[in-house]
Design goal:
The mean pLDDT is 89. The chain is mainly alpha-helical. It has one domain (2-225). Helix 1 (2-28) runs antiparallel to helix 5, helix 6 crosses helix 8 (143-165) and helix 8 (143-165) crosses helix 11. The longest helix has 29 residues, at 197-225. The relative contact order is 0.13. The protein has 11 helices and no strands.
């Protein structure tokens, strides 16, 4: 239970940094919309969606669902205010996953060097295998082990957010990145999918997208943490 709560807390904090990065990038590119609406802040209350950030994740965790989805309130911005009209939206879109990558790299490298290899392998096996009771036994009374587990959790969660948001399906960030390279007609047709995006994502998750995301996250996690 404790580790599940830590995973949810890590998800909330990481999602807040993700959304803040979008607002910061837009502001630096000339659009004050997020700042004017009070969204250019790290205060979780400004970004959390009650259902998508709290209720749904808890329901999925306690029901032991094989699918895990969560989201925060998107940070609004006005693309017409951006100084870079060609690639401004792309820069704003990529800033969220970019923030998650930086957080994953920071915590992953911390986890990589803080404990010896043999102990690291044991901790990671218990973490990825869901053997939380054994993991809690390993961290009790050990500050170093506790820091490793927290770092591993934050690294893993941020990699999930990064990879999932880079999937090029509206309204995910990957769709904004892809649309920047499409001509006007294709871009308009592509973005018309947005009202159906959640349904498309759910269908793809059931068809195997979840396996692709999980495998990509696992490979990146192992590479960064150094297993």
């Amino acid at each position: 239970m404790l580790l599940i709560l830590l995973l949810i807390i890590a998800l909330i904090i990481s999602a807040v940094f993700h959304e803040y990065a979008h607002g910061w990038a837009a502001y630096k590119l000339g659009d004050p919309t997020a700042k004017d609406l009070g969204r250019l802040t790290l205060n979780p209350l400004a970004h959390l969606d009650v259902f998508g950030s709290v209720i749904l994740p808890l329901l999925l965790v306690f029901s032991k669902s094989p699918i895990f989805i969560a989201w925060a309130k998107p940070v609004p911005f006005n693309p017409y205010n951006l100084r870079d009209q060609k690639y401004g939206e792309l820069k704003v879109a990529i800033s969220g996953p970019g923030m998650n990558f930086l957080l994953a790299l920071f915590f992953g490298l911390l986890a990589r060097f803080i404990v010896p290899m043999q102990l690291k392998q044991e901790l990671v096996i218990n973490f990825l295998g869901g053997n939380y009771e054994a993991l809690l036994g390993q961290v009790q009374g050990s500050l170093i082990n506790s820091i490793f587990v927290l770092s591993a959790i934050f690294c893993f969660v941020n990699l999930i957010l990064m990879v999932f948001n880079l999937v090029p399906i509206p309204p995910l960030d990957g769709s904004k990145i892809l649309s920047a390279f499409l001509n006007y007609d294709l871009r308009e047709k592509f973005l018309r999918l947005e009202p159906y995006g959640i349904i498309i994502i759910l269908v793809l998750l059931m068809m195997g997208l979840l396996s692709f995301v999980s495998l990509t996250v696992l490979r990146l996690f192992i590479a960064i943490v150094g297993i």
